[in-house]
Amino acid sequence: MAAEAYDLVVIGGGPGGYVAAIRAAQLGLNTALVERAELGGICLNWGCIPTKALLRSAEVYQLAQHLDDYGIAAENIHFDAGKIVKRSRDVAARLNAGVTHLLKKNKVRVIAGEAKLAAPGKIAVALADGGKAELSAPHIILATGARARQLPGLETDGKLIWSYREAMVPDEIPDSLLIVGSGAIGIEFASFYRTLGADVTVVEMVDRILPVEDAEIATLAAKAFKKQGMQIHTGATVAAMTPKEDAVEVTLRFSDDEEQALAVDRVIMAVGITGNIEGLGLEDAGVTVDRGHIVTDESCATSVKGVYAIGDVAGPPWLAHKASHEAVLCVEHIVGGGTLHRLDPLNVPGCTYCTPQIASVGLTEAAAEEQGYRIRVGRFPYVGNGKAIAMGDTDGLIKTIFDAETGELLGAHMIGAEVTELIQGYCVAKTLETTEAELMHTIFPHPTLSEMMHESVLDAYGRALHF
After folding, report:
1. 317 upstream amide cis, omega within 30 of 0
2. Of 88, 81, 275, which is closest to residue 170 (Cα–Cα)?
3. Which residues belong to the active site?
């Protein structure tokens, strides 16, 4: 069988893979993309996008419970779980079609099948239609993503014990729910199901929820979630789970070795992810793997010449926008013959779309101190902002951290309405290596939530005007 020859072959069509293929085609490379499932990957089809559609429905329902606060009257407000799920799936399908169109527009050859490294510069593909194909290329990008991590003895069964996939398409909203893990995925599902009426319990093995976030923000989040009626257990693990006919009996174990039994209708396991490295022929090819992820350098190159890895399969942070950024960085490095625009992990924002929203970029206060910085910290609460008051959404905080000696913006951390949109302002500031002086001299429009970003900077230097 004669191999189809390309300049670049991308394995995996998620937010890293399809972006890499499009950018490569824009730069004149004859490019093929192999995808075994759905274009857009987990993010577009079963993660980032459809979960935001679910959360938007929950947000609208929650707002509808308080219409009288805005001078509006309505009766018999209720939700239809089936329609909420259908809307989410329709959003995913629409974007999947959009990715298909973009790849076609950029003349990327899309191959449905499962690929593996067969020899240097060679790829064997088991086609979805049952056939086989062989591809050759001097450059290969692995963008195979990741999947939910399974814990021994606590495996998901797709019926009573769910992964994110089952949690996104419930037949009905369960009366009670245990969520194991309090990272972004776990907390987003906790927020969605609690808003729609489920009794939600969150269990986290470390001493606080949202462990990657700034401790002050995580504390505010826990307070808000408890106010909403969530039960939160930190410093705890699941010692045992026993599925029954239509419920799960769970034993929680706390750090002092005390145990608590509870029964819930469903369990969602949200204990992290592991890279999709199986079946790629990595070991035979000599590609180095460490703890379930492919090892790469700052150009996304693996230990094998001509083979690169991007996105979740290459390790944290496990974020779609990080994968897309690496895609462009990697392809431009390949085409540029060594020119490299490095990715600074401290410039990668993180967003959690719960209620209230949480967003951050850069160092936490604790991390900055641990790294030896002498810092200045500014804070501004939502309750002091006119737009937040007009919106009727005054719970939240904007927090900024600066190097006291240079004025460098080290980190920004937010909780409150629309912070997942606001955080980008600080991302731009960090990329431009902005100091407090430029931020202070920037004119922020009034009335907007963004004014709090300005006030937080001013507060770090004792100059806050409105609080």
Report:
1. yes
2. 81
3. 446
Contact 261, 251 (CB under 8 A): yes
The residue with tokens 């369960």 is: 174
Tokens at residue 322, please? Answer: 């990080």
pTM over 0.90: yes
Angle 292-411-317 from CA coordinates, rounded to 5°: 15
Q: How many CB atoms lie within 10 A of CB 146?
A: 23
User: Would you tell me the crossing angle of helices 48-64 and 184-195 to the nearest 10 degrees?
Assistant: 30
In angstroms, the CA 322 to CA 146 distance is: 14
Asked if pLDDT for residue 435 goes beyond 70, the answer is yes
The percent of residues in the chain predicted with pLDDT above 70, rounded, is 99
403 to each of 228, 406, 458, how far by Cα in Å? Answer: 36, 6, 14
Q: How far is CA 290 from the centre of its chain?
A: 22
Q: What are phi and psi of 77, to 5 degrees?
A: -75, 125
Average pLDDT over residues 310-337: 95
pLDDT, tens only, 114-170: 999 999 999 999 999 999 999 999 999 999 999 999 999 999 999 999 999 999 999
- Identify which of 177, 170, 200 has the alpha carbon closest to the alpha carbon of residue 80: 170
The answer to whether 257 and 169 are in contact (CB under 8 A) is no
Using only the alpha carbons of the chain, give its radius of gyration: 24
Tokens standing for residue 461: 């230097």
Rounded (5°) CA angle 87-34-149 = 60
Q: CB–CB of 244/252 below 8 Å?
A: no
Give dist(CA 14, CA 324) in Å, integer: 9
Is the peptide bond prior to 345 cis by the omega test (within 30 degrees of 0)?
A: no
